[in-house]
Each structure stands twice: as C-alpha cells, then as structure tokens.
Amino acid sequence: AGLTAGFSGADLENLVNEAALIATRRGAVAVENRDFSSGIERIVGGLERKSRVMRPEEKQRVAFHEMGHATLSLALEEGETVHKVSIIPRGIGALGYTMRRPTEDRYILDRSELEARLSILLGGRASESVFFKEVSTGAADDLDKATEIAHSMVTRYGMSGELGLMTYGKTVSP
C-alpha cells in the first residue's frame, strides 16, 4: 500500500490487472507481493527494455548516477525511503531508476522539503560529476523535474526572497 501513494482508483485497478498478468506469465496459481511490486515498477517506470543493451561503461555510469539519488535520499531523510534502485532500462528514456516511497501521506511541503527534493533529483548528476569528472545526458529527465519544482517554488508558492510573496504568470481580475 505504501508504494501506491497517490494512485487513483483506476491506477489501483490497473495494478491488480498487471499483477495478475505477471503471476499468470510465471505460471503461478495465486498473485503474490512480488507480482504487485513488479506491476508497480511496470506502471511507474514503463516496460523493461530488454532490447536496450548498454555498454559496461554506460551501466557503471547509470549505477553511479542512481547511487547519487539514493545516497542523497537516505542522507536528507525528507519523508521518503529508498525502496529499490535499478539499472535495468525501462520506458522510453529511463536507463535506471531509484524508486522511493513515502513514509506517510503528505498534502503540503515546506521550502526545506522542496529543496531536499531538488537535491535528490540533482544527486545523480552530482555523482557523475564527482566520479566521472563530467556529466552526461542521463540527467535530462531529472533536470526537467528539478526545473519544474524550482519554477513552482518561485512562481506559484512565493518562495523567492528576491521576488517576494507573489504568484507570477496568472492574470488578476480587478
């Protein structure tokens, strides 16, 4: 249940169906927790890309990148725990992933929690920089997500000391 925080009823229905299909494929007579875990990975991360073969150097870079996310997640303790780290390519662009799960239901986040999320997102890129002395294109999705959070902090939540307590981008009716 902790891995499905934020899932809608339709998402949960999809998960149950996916878990049943996974159990059937492995010839099981019943659905087990591992089937639900695999189903969540498939729903959240996309299909496993067995055809995407990475060079050993790429696998190592992806492993260090994901280690950066996991290390910062553990160090910052911002309300989510690391559930699984993988370097198995999934979906359209993900070469690996760090799956985290909330320790409790959250409805609002404060500035320090958002900054922790930014740090965790950028942890993969930082790890690449430290261990490989340069960054790669592997952090593109992380940069998109971090930019979205930072943009919202300034334009929606008024969390910029320089710009003040205002929202930006919305027109105000008189």
Rough shape?
globular
- By helix and strand content, what is the structural category? mainly alpha
Q: How far is the first residue's CA from the last residue's CA?
A: 46 Å
Low-pLDDT stretches are none
User: Going across the major beta sheet, what is the strand order?
Assistant: 1-2
What share of the residues lie within helices? 40-55%
- What radius of gyration results from the CA coordinates? 19 Å
Strand content: 5-15%
For the largest beta-sheet, the strand count, sense and barrel status come to: 2 strands, antiparallel
Order of helices and strands: HHHEEHH
What is the residue-averaged pLDDT? Answer: 87
Number of contiguous helices: 5
Protein architecture, described:
20% of the residues are buried. This protein has helices spanning 9-25, 33-45, 56-76, 111-132, 140-155, and strands spanning 80-86, 97-102. With 174 residues, the chain is mainly alpha-helical. The mean pLDDT is 87. 51% of the residues lie in helices and 7% in strands. Strands 1-2 form a two-stranded antiparallel sheet. The chain contains 5 helices and 2 strands. It is globular.
Helix/strand layout:
Layout lengths: L8 H17 L7 H13 L10 H21 L3 E7 L10 E6 L8 H22 L7 H16 L19
Antiparallel strand pairs: 1-2
Helix pairs in contact: 1-2, 3-4, 4-5
Summarize the model shown:
The chain is built from five helices and two strands, in the order H-H-H-E-E-H-H.
